[in-house]
Amino acid sequence: MKEFLFVYRNDYKAQPKPTQEEGKAIMKKWMDWLGGIGAQGKLADQGNVLGSAGKVVKSGNMVTDGPYTEIKELIGGYSVVKTETIEEAAEIAKGCPILDDGGNVEVREINKM
């Protein structure tokens, strides 16, 4: 089996802050979806939610604040799945809850070094 990275992206400026109840419902959808992938033996790494603040290190040892607030999409998290083909991974990604909120899932093969 090959491993594929799911990168979860969304327009963070357009997303309203959910209530506590809405947040729980959203989290349940994510846990159910990831649990279903895990039950098939295809979840290599559940991944994590990424914080909104960070730093970008550039050549010349330059460090700047990031991610850049002028970009529309923000990477919110990631997961790693195991499938035979990228098409199978993309099919799994079609069930991702982020799609319900106008976000997207980037699917990339992980090539071992």
Which terms would index this structure?
four-stranded antiparallel sheet, single chain, two-stranded antiparallel sheet, 113 residues, 39% strand, alpha+beta, Alpha-Beta Plaits
Describe this structure in words.
The chain has 113 residues and is α+β, with helices and mostly antiparallel strands. It has two helices and six strands. The chain has a single domain, classed as 2-Layer Sandwich (Alpha-Beta Plaits). The strands form two sheets. It has a four-stranded antiparallel β-sheet, with helices on one face. It has a two-stranded antiparallel sheet with strand order 3-4. Strand 3 and strand 4 form a beta hairpin. The chain starts with a strand and ends with a strand.
List the helices and strands and how they pair.
Layout: E1 2-11, H1 20-39, E2 43-49, E3 54-58, E4 62-66, E5 73-83, H2 86-93, E6 104-109
Antiparallel strand pairs: 1-5, 1-6, 2-5, 3-4
Q: In short, what is this structure?
A:
The chain has 113 residues and is an alpha+beta fold.
| CATH secondary-structure class | Alpha Beta
Helical stretch tally: 2
Q: Let me know the CATH homologous superfamily.
A: Dimeric alpha+beta barrel
The radius of gyration computed from the alpha-carbon positions, rounded to a whole number of angstroms, is 16 Å
Give the tally of structural domains: 1
Mean pLDDT: 90
- Second rung of CATH, namely the architecture: 2-Layer Sandwich
State the distance separating the first and last CA atoms. Answer: 16 Å
Question: Numbering strands along the chain, what is their spatial order in the largest sheet?
Answer: 2-5-1-6
From N to C, what is the helix and strand string? EHEEEEHE
| Annotated CATH topology | Alpha-Beta Plaits
How large is the share of residues in beta strands?
35-45%
Q: Could you name the ranges where pLDDT drops below 50 across 5 or more consecutive residues?
A: none
Q: How can the largest sheet be summarized?
A: 4 strands, antiparallel
E-strand count: 6
Helix vs. strand class: alpha+beta
Instruction: Tell the overall outline.
Output: globular
DSSP helix fraction = 10-25%
